[in-house]
């Protein structure tokens, strides 16, 4: 397989079933979270055989943001690069992470951390107010991103607040 090159602004198409696809765009690299790629996934669903104007796609409503490794998604054929556009929107996303992540015995965490891209993480303990609306900040696998694109939620267990 050829080497995968990506840059901020790149746009990718992802099949979500046999007849539909959605789009995502590379919008940032977050040094705070393992220097990972940050994507925004657009809400609109398109027919698999339709090629929309990408400048219109990126004006659409954003469904969610996530950290991932874009190159892995390409190599594993979860999405493919279809273009690039330097318009990446306002990238001021709040992310959250639980110190209890991965512990199946913890159903409700009181060890939450929040941050914005390339800013220092801040421990907040209980997740209150607008912090509850923050996106999960873990680096998400490509298949879990596709699952969320299909269903609206991730396919892994994460503590509640």
Helices and strands, with pairings:
Layout: E1 10-15, E2 20-30, E3 36-42, E4 46-47, H1 54-57, E5 62-68, H2 70-75, E6 80-84, E7 94-98, E8 112-116, E9 122-125, E10 135-136, H3 142-151
Parallel strand pairs: 7-10
Antiparallel strand pairs: 1-2, 1-6, 2-3, 2-4, 3-5, 7-8, 8-9
How would you sum up this structure, described in words?
The protein has 161 residues and is mainly beta. It has one domain (10-151). It contains 3 helices and 10 strands; from the N terminus they run ββββαβαβββββα. Strands 1, 2, 3, 4, 5 and 6 form a 6-stranded antiparallel sheet that branches. β1 and β2 (20-30) form a beta hairpin. It is globular and about 45 Å long. The mean pLDDT is 96.
What percentage of residues falls in helices of 4 or more residues? 10-25%
Number of separate helices: 3
Strand content: 25-35%
The structural domain count equals 1
| CA gyration radius, whole angstroms | 16 Å
* Uncertain stretches of 5 or more adjacent residues: none
The number of strands is: 10
Classification by helices and strands = mainly beta
Distance between the ends? 42 Å
* Helix and strand sequence: EEEEHEHEEEEEH
Largest pleated sheet:
6 strands, antiparallel
Outline:
The protein contains 3 helices and 10 strands; from the N terminus they run E-E-E-E-H-E-H-E-E-E-E-E-H.
